[in-house]
From TrEMBL, chains A, B:
The keyword Ligase does not apply. Keywords: Amino-acid biosynthesis, Aromatic amino acid biosynthesis, NAD, Oxidoreductase, Tyrosine biosynthesis. Residues 294-313 are annotated as: Disordered. One of its GO terms (biological process) is tyrosine biosynthetic process. This is prephenate dehydrogenase. Belongs to the prephenate/arogenate dehydrogenase family. Residues 300-313 have a biased composition (Basic and acidic residues).
Length: 313, 313
């Protein structure tokens, strides 16, 4: 099925919004792209990058006449945005989003959606630690999953159309219940981010001397955590404010397990440690086999060659 | 100063041992490389890769006539290895190692070292999640730090020689006290590994259905943790058995901080979360500026192009 929209409105044009703009354009999925954002500077940046055709600070204006509208702002901004755009939504349009939590989005946006608009929240499981309109690239969604959480009232035909849009950008698509999405993401994404932010925070609190050594010697494992903990603070604040129960549930399990491991360290229980560390290898193997990760050592990070001057020292 | 050794003996020939063999050869730092390991298969693999000149299952034989001996086995094997090689150590030789903990190495190896041998424990802060003789590469140490922890009795001239050896392989070298090394590494490496093993373990315990979804959706953050948690289980068991106090101290701080973060999530304290998530960004910036990390998004992981067939779907 060939997917095509006349006018795509992107409300928010950061990493995800700009990647959608580039991918939709590259694959010829839309005629016109309208971009709305909050700040003048961001709009100027998007314009300089030629990400769209229409640029505005008024979300309702961008939405006017659009047959596909995607919210690409932090989830905490959604309710105000929904209120602002609702009167401008075209009958027959699809309203979607890319937020990292889903039950909350149904709750705060749902009530504003007119009955003749198909509300199909979504979440592309793709991203990097960078933000803003300059961070996007057309391949971001390629080979990654996109989860859609349409309510029961949405016509199948509209869901199929949105599925086709994401597939055309290279994504695998799966539909599921919003609450289930939030539980799975709590453990694959939200708790890992919380833990990474936390360990980097622990380091930030060390005495200045030790902290500078940690930075120097970070290649021994810590730097991987700092990548995750470099993600956008506002986006992540909103994730934890809006997926609290699932996060606390998964964090509770994590802490229980950590107590067991901590005791094994304290009592010097070698066999338990080795057993634990062996079990976890299989999971990475499965992820690589599922095509969700590179098998290259160290993520394929560059290892610089030895500078010539060092060779004969 | 030009560094040269007549005979280098590597006791253990996994990721680190094989990388030393390749780097020392490439940079012309040694005449002869003798390789000893525990298992016949590993020795055969090393021979097939032409990593050395002499291959033996007898560590003492490898050490015979060597002016540089480096232990490259898991730290738990060190005491037995020290006992075995001590009588074969050449007067004037340097004995070193690459173990991830240092105070324990002084404690268990030190007593076996003859007075005319310079014992200079070391730790290259470089590695990947892969193991075995086939995992090594000559550039592994390039641009990375190597920490040496010579005792006060070691002649400066011998330390300088070992420093020169690591520099010639591309490393930056720093000498410090063994206990200090262990505390810094506890937070930069040991606790991050423990936490990563733990979160992957939490997932391994989920019901089969959820677990397969976690694998599918792992690209949202979790997969980074699985890389760290794919490291060698025996090596890491030994790290936690031999650096217990520093690990428990740093884990304690981590857990205190996590309680604060957990409460902020529970009470929905947005400003506290945002403040915490903002603070941590600076640390990554410092690490990139220090040349210890790539600035490329997502570690420069490959993003596959959309297959042609998808484009018109
Ligand atoms: N980053 C990821 O890895 C990732 C992955 C999957 C899903 N997501 C989801 O994608 C969404 C956007 O994330 P992103 O990474 O693209 O963020 P980003 O790069 O930080 O961009 C955010 C965009 O939202 C706009 N915005 C922020 N606050 C706003 C407000 N109060 N009202 C209106 N617009 C506002 C910003 O506008 P101004 O610059 O004009 O203020 C900017 O255009 C979030 O809901 C996030 O959960 C992110
Ligand atoms: N991996 C890293 O990222 C990293 C980084 C810095 C330092 N280190 C340190 O480097 C050392 C080696 O790590 P690696 O990653 O190179 O390990 P590896 O790839 O698993 O290789 C370990 C080597 O040690 C040998 N060995 C294992 N148990 C032994 C025993 N009981 N007696 C004698 N030899 C034994 C193995 O021999 P067989 O195969 O013959 O059994 C193999 O040759 C460890 O002390 C580790 O702490 C590792």
């Amino acid at each position: 099925m060939s997917v095509h929209f006349k006018k795509l409105a992107l409300i928010g044009i950061g990493l995800i919004g700009s990647s959608i703009a580039l991918a939709a354009r590259r694959h010829g999925l839309v005629d016109t792209i309208a971009i709305a954002t909050r700040r003048e500077e961001t709009l100027d940046e998007a314009r300089a990058l030629a990400l769209g055709d229409i640029y505005t600070l008024d979300a309702a204006e961008a939405v006017h006449g659009a047959d596909l509208v995607i919210l690409c702002a932090p989830v905490g901004a959604y309710e105000a945005l929904a209120k602002a755009i609702a009167p401008a939504l075209e009958p027959g349009a699809i309203l979607s989003d890319v937020g990292s939590v889903k039950a909350h989005v149904h709750k705060v946006v749902g009530p504003y959606v007119p009955p003749n608009v198909a509300f199909i929240p979504g979440h592309p499981l793709a991203g990097t630690e960078h933000s803003g309109p300059g961070a996007g690239f057309a391949e971001l969604f390629s080979g990654r999953w996109c989860v859609l959480t349409p309510g029961p009232e949405v016509p199948q035909e509209q869901t199929d159309k949105l599925v086709g849009f994401w597939r055309a950008m290279g994504s695998n698509v799966e539909c599921m219940d919003a609450a289930h999405h939030d539980m799975v993401l709590a453990i694959t994404s939200h708790v890992p981010h919380l833990v990474a932010y936390n360990i980097v925070g622990t380091v930030a609190d060390l005495e200045a001397d030790t902290k500078s050594e940690v930075i120097k010697f970070s290649a021994s494992g810590f730097r991987d955590f700092t990548r995750i903990a470099a993600s956008d603070p506002v986006m992540w604040r909103d994730v934890f404010l809006t997926n609290r129960d699932a996060v606390l549930e998964m964090l509770g399990r994590f802490l229980e397990d950590l107590s067991v491991l901590q005791r094994a360290v304290r009592t010097g229980d070698g066999p338990a440690l080795e057993e634990m560390f062996t079990r976890t290898r299989a999971i990475r193997r499965s992820i690589i086999n599922a095509g969700q990760e590179t098998a290259a050592a160290d993520f394929g990070r560059p290892h610089e060659a030895v500078p010539k001057s060092e060779e004969q020292r």
